[in-house]
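Incident log, structure service

09:12 report received: a user says their structure output differs between two submissions of the same chain.
09:20 pulled the input from the user's history:
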Amino acid sequence: MKINDIMIKNVISAKPELAIKDALQIMKENKIRHLPVINEENTVIGIISDRDLKDASPSVFAADQKELLEKPVSEVMITDVLTAFTNDFVEEAAHMMTENQISCLPIEQNGKLAGIITETDLLHTLVRLTGADAPSSRLELEVPNRSGMLSNVAAIIKEHNINIQSVLVYPSNDQSKKILVFRLRSMDLRMLIQSLRESDYSVLWPEELGMST
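09:34 re-ran on a clean worker, output below:
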């Protein structure tokens, strides 16, 4: 999945001369936590968060410092902005955000601001990709870490005429094995689980034979 498929395209942004108080008001009214700062060419030159602005705002007890709110956002914005591109893959953007501990990523196309993604967008995408938002059952297996295991299990699932909604593969704590997690379009997996166990597969979930999810 590409970033272009999940990004917010109607981006609310700010110009560098915007006053801090006005930026705070925009964020409050639109219930957002970040504002990309752009120049006249729509190029990203900075980003500000609600936390940045609140840190730069005077204390409620400092009545003589209200002029701080009149300062432009250019004085408090982060200028070393990490960005991604519309054709980047979602997992690459997620990796960039986790590695750099950021919760928002402006998206560029042809050097101009084209969208934005947040950690919330990524979580929604994860739910969608795993099929957890649709009626389905979870099947989790531990299999030997060798080629062909996924196709072998998929063949058994096919024998039971069950459609696969999604599948994830990740390492097991035992390096000689790996974990397969399926989302299946069936609410009753009892016969399938019996077939898998008869083929010596280790079913981790559902935990008990005859249990449906």
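09:41 both user submissions now match this output. Likely a transient worker issue. Closing.
09:42 reviewer note: The mean pLDDT is 90. Strands lie at 34-38, 44-49, 84-85, 104-109, 112-118, 137-144, 164-171, 177-184, 202-205.
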